[in-house]
Q: What sequence folds into this?
């Protein structure tokens, strides 16, 4: 096991509170008085999560958006965010992007910390939400016979990243300024059996849903809406699209626009089947160790 | 105004929610259903907040402890923490320190994010607490005629830092493993008029309390318990001691061991008077821009 995997295992061993459900890379779901709180924390690091020289307004926008996307997948209403920010050259642009994303989703900045440091900068957001529906959606609820659905189009973020990296002048908003699907998440929460956002690649996230649900998921790749049909597998594994992936009981219609892309089957020898091919381990299915 | 000051001003302009009270560097106090939540987020950066080569178990311990100290100053009971962690060489030690501090204060790890990056590492903790007393203690409640008190001894962290830096072999726990005064904070909350933890230096933090309370605070330096009487002013300005600084109505005894070090006076021409000398601005009174 790698050193990183060892560390993450140590954290999982510490995350024994029922709110954490042993998962340190997912939202915490915390019953508190009359409310159910949803808590999530994501960090973005220069050169790991964004290109050196990136517009810091985009970085701020995306940092908040990906945290709000975690809340969306829980059907949660945002309550506010805390910011951990390493000061740098383009802070004025960072502040502009922060104001834009908080304004767009009507989310208050509640507090945080600003620090100085050398080398690659990092920025963290903690997002706090309140559940609008209980039980709170999770990735572990997929049931035998359910249908699998995804919102939107996959691969758009990949094309945006490539446009930005190559300076082609093509649009890159799908990569730089993802839109958290808060309205869709709340509409879906009462209907779904399992839900998560597609942050690390459709196949990897579906693999994780299948593992968490102790089921197998079968995906029909041709059914998945992709941004570039000539690179279908790239679109299914790239990530960063922040669409919602969810399962519904057979015969239930999605209350939001979405595409049916597969089914939940009895747990076979693999968690994931793509066009009938068994995918036994998560390597190559998406981004890991981000 | 410096670029950093500009940025912090931009954040203050965004922090308009009543929970944030326009302060991005203090706890957020959030009414939610039947509970009052206290939220805080602090970041530690390699070479800014800890020495390169530091024992990462100490770094993890201190990172959690300083966030819990913020909760202590609000009289809050910790509910849990989220961790944002940049992976590195000594992660096994980091995990050990994390387990120690969470165990010592019986605080669960609720979730977080692990990331890779180059250069100086950074680590963030978000601590979530619930208020045990309302109104929640703040730094802004000091009243004319109140007495000013501080727990413990100031300057111990400074001596610990110097021992560690110089490799003298003397104890450095006061610097490396500060003890958040959670029990004391809860005991004090119903009695105090203003309270904060001493993170950036007694004089700077008292200056901030006076400013927030629109009062003047007069401190008798000889009354302050210090770890090295030959370096009294260093002890009063160094910070990192995480003692509690609070005001009580005249005649009220402190319910926890503490020393009376001053009084709250009508707002004069300076926020702070040290042995009768007016201190007009915060420069030199403690750490800023950490």
A:
């Amino acid at each position: 096991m790698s050193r990183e995997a060892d560390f993450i295992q140590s954290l999982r061993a510490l995350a024994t509170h029922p709110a954490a459900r042993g998962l340190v890379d997912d939202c915490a779901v915390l019953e508190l008085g009359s409310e159910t709180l949803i808590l999530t924390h994501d960090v973005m690091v220069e050169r790991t999560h964004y290109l050196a020289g990136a517009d810091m307004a985009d970085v701020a926008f995306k940092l908040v958006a990906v945290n709000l996307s975690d809340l969306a997948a829980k059907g949660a209403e945002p309550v506010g965010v805390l910011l951990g920010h390493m000061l740098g050259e383009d802070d004025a642009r960072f502040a502009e992007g922060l104001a834009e994303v908080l304004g767009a989703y009507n989310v208050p900045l509640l507090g945080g910390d600003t620090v100085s440091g050398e080398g690659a900068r990092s920025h963290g957001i903690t997002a706090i939400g309140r559940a609008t529906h209980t039980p709170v959606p999770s990735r572990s609820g997929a049931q035998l016979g359910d249908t699998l659905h995804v919102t939107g189009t996959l691969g758009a973020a990949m094309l945006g990243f490539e446009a930005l990296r190559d300076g082609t002048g093509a649009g890159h908003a799908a990569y730089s300024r993802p839109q958290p699907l808060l309205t869709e998440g709340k509409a879906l929460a009462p209907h779904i059996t399992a839900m998560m956002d597609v942050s690390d690649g459709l196949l990897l996230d579906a693999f994780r849903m299948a593992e968490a649900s102790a089921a197998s998921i079968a995906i029909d790749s041709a059914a998945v809406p992709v941004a570039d049909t000539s690179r279908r597998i790239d679109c299914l594994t790239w990530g960063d699209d922040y669409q919602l992936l969810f399962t519904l009981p057979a015969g239930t219609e999605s209350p939001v626009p979405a595409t049916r892309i597969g089914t939940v089957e009895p747990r076979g020898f693999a968690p994931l089947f793509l066009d009938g091919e068994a995918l036994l381990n998560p390597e190559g299915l998406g981004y890991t160790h981000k």
About this structure: Chain B has two domains: 3-131, 147-279. The longest strand of chain B covers residues 35-45. Chain B touches chain A through 71 residues (CB under 8 Å). The domain at 147-279 of chain B is CATH 3.90.650.10 (Phosphoribosyl-aminoimidazole Synthetase; Chain A, domain 2).
